[in-house]
Amino acid sequence: MINQYELEKEAIRIAKEAEAEFLTHNMDVYEYLHQTCEGHEWSIYTYKAIQLCAECDTSEGEDQLDDVDFRPASFADHACKLAYATLLNACVLAFDNLEGNLCGDEEEEEICAELEKEIVQLAKEEKFTEVKLEGAELEAYIAKRFPK
Fold first, then answer.
1. Is 44 in the same domain as 77?
2. Which of 35, 41, 65, 98 is deepest in the core (most CB within 10 A)?
3. How many domains does the chain contain in total?
4. Tens digit of pLDDT for each residue in 22-78?
5. pTM over 0.90
6. Residue 15 and residue 32: Cα distance in Å, rounded?
């Protein structure tokens, strides 16, 4: 039976797997979460998707589908996409809340401070008007400038 407790438990399991994949294979955590949720039995089997939608809080998933202006082709399509969005949001939240996860607040602040100093110094030395950030640097910069 799928319920809110089971959803949260599964999200934590997937989040821990994502962290392990990052540490062992350097795979992007959010890409891993996306792929895992997209192929998860709760997202692909209509019966299980309907169970999740009926028994769990799907408000975050509904908001995500509204944001992308999703128009389902059928009831089954809507249930599967809503289950996917709900599971993905639960996994992202679980990853963000993992004890000692790779994106801890203190560590993130330190990285942001270091990056900002480095970027400012490079810009002064080279008289850059633009700086291109990628990957972890971009995420750290965005997290500092736009806190949750």
1. yes
2. 65
3. 2
4. 888 988 999 999 999 999 999 999 999 999 999 999 999 999 999 999 999 999 999
5. no
6. 9
